[in-house]
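Page 37, continued from 36.
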């Protein structure tokens, strides 16, 4: 079974949308649809992989990891996410306690969620 998509409520839709539009670009995800209370992101094939909305109360902090193809994408995600208002929660680097090639970065988004970008090579 493959992962389909994930969505969650956010406190400030506009601020969150602006953050994710910028932060997800380095890992190949772009906004492809917006409704009155949701923004949808995908890899360019029209399918939603990730979305944010305001239809319910935001959850407590969650951890969400986005897979990157290269370490350079992880580095760019970190740089762009911080410039978009994210807070550092772990600079780019190898996390050997996960695996010898697990290269990741962690950023706190505008809602307090721990957002990760990871390259496994």
């Amino acid at each position: 079974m493959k992962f389909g998509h994930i969505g969650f409520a956010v406190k400030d839709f506009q601020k969150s949308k602006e953050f994710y539009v910028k932060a997800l670009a380095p890992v190949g995800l772009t906004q492809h649809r917006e409704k009155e209370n949701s923004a949808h992101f995908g890899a360019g094939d029209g399918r939603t992989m990730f979305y944010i909305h305001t239809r319910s109360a935001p959850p407590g902090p969650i951890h969400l990891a986005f897979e990157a193809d290269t370490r350079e994408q992880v580095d760019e995600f970190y740089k762009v996410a911080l410039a978009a208002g994210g807070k550092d929660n772990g600079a780019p680097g190898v996390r050997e306690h996960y695996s010898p090639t697990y290269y990741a970065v962690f950023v706190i988004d505008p809602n307090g969620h721990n957002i990760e970008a990871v390259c496994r090579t």
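The chain has one domain: 6-119. Flag for discussion at group meeting. The CA atoms of residues 31 and 41 lie 4 Å apart.
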